[in-house]
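Exercise 7 asks you to align residues with tokens for two separate proteins.
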Amino acid sequence: MSDRKFVFDRKDLVGILRDLNLIVVSLDRIGSVYNDLDEDEHNALLADFITDRDVFRKLASMRSVLSEPFSGEPDSDEMEKEMENLEYWSYEDRASSRGMTVG
């Protein structure tokens, strides 16, 4: 990948850093009470946080802002290659790791 530098709007970066901080610190706090709760309570806290704080939308927005400079650039093919070998979560992988069958 080239050593090109990209310029981002300060407001966009501050927004991304605020959202990342909110998500990381909150997940850490939720994780820190894991031993004080049963698994269902912990999972409910986690699900409520993700839903109430609109975490999926925030993460998608961050990805969009950070990916934008690569779209239409000569480096865009290289960026796609960098993303190829990510180990995305899948239900099938989770199920098979627990000895469950899917279908």
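Second protein for Exercise 7:
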Amino acid sequence: MSKNRKLRVHLVHQSFGDYVAGMVTGFDGSPAGDEVDLKVTTISSGTSTLGRLDGVAGEYRHVQLPRFRDPRSAVRSFSAVRRIMASECDVVHWQAAGNPWVDAAFSLLMGKRPTVVTVHDMQPHPGDHSVLPGTFAAIGRLVRAADQVTVHAPHVGDQAVAAGADRSRVSVVAHGELATRYVPASDLPLPVGHEPTVLFFGRAQGYKGLDVLVEAMDTVRQRVPEARLIVAGSGPTLDELFPAGEPEPKWCELHRGHVPLAAVPELFGRSAVVALPYREASQSGVAALAAGFGRPVVASRVPGLADIVIDGTTGMLVDPNSPSALADGLTLVLNDPELRRNLSTGAHRTAATTLSWSTIAEELTSVYQAAAGTFAQVGD
């Protein structure tokens, strides 16, 4: 390939619309854009998520597949991936996880093009029963076959190596901030929240620890009587703790189901602190979103969160699965306006540097170049 020509990268994903949009804007607005030319394909069984790329420069297409259990899904997945591998590009970047037939097709056809695989999860989260059969078997094959693998936390990289990936081909690249997908960068960070409001945002699966937070709020409200909790999202733990049809507790505000895009900055803006009481994590889009909005977090000290939350700088880390430790951390942030301001400043600074998409684009450029070089060496 000529040194004067941009590296042509075909970015393919199934369900990471905001994440991919952030990545594209990173290349569009940084020096990495002078080296890489992106085109994006969404492969999905549902509605295309490419709508979030409106106004972002680039070339996009959507491939519609039947549902996973439809007999036609395997054949059409293989056909779609074969066309992608035959397309005019120098590197294919695949965001793993979704329809396992698509992951399996990529693992079988990887030898056709230099390939980078981003793995968001190497193993199922405890108690998460939403994962389709065969997902992690397919991901294991992907990391063994890929020219380069990127993950968002070191322990997920260790899991990829344990599954057979070559350590030299695994890179840790941070999960980028997501707030600029909702609010212009010029309007960030959001003003520091003054009301003693705690936000839990996203899927309420068992490993996310919403039950730990609800128990902790009993202690928090004893110490800060006006404290309130906002829960926005969906999941079995939410339904168990707050059954539909029953009155909401006066100290809790519920937003069930999909949160409208316009409501996201409003919910974060009303919150003084974001709670991440997870029992386990591979990374956290919510932590990255909170950082972008300039919201401090109180998070469990577990791998995946401890890698993104800087204790005392962007938030507070507490012992996992401990309502008392979580209550102590939340009370400290809610009762100390100066600490809250300092954490907000630190969170936004991290979002604008380490978690910025321009920084990530530069790191990915090196990964793409390594993938192309590895592929060329294998072919020699």
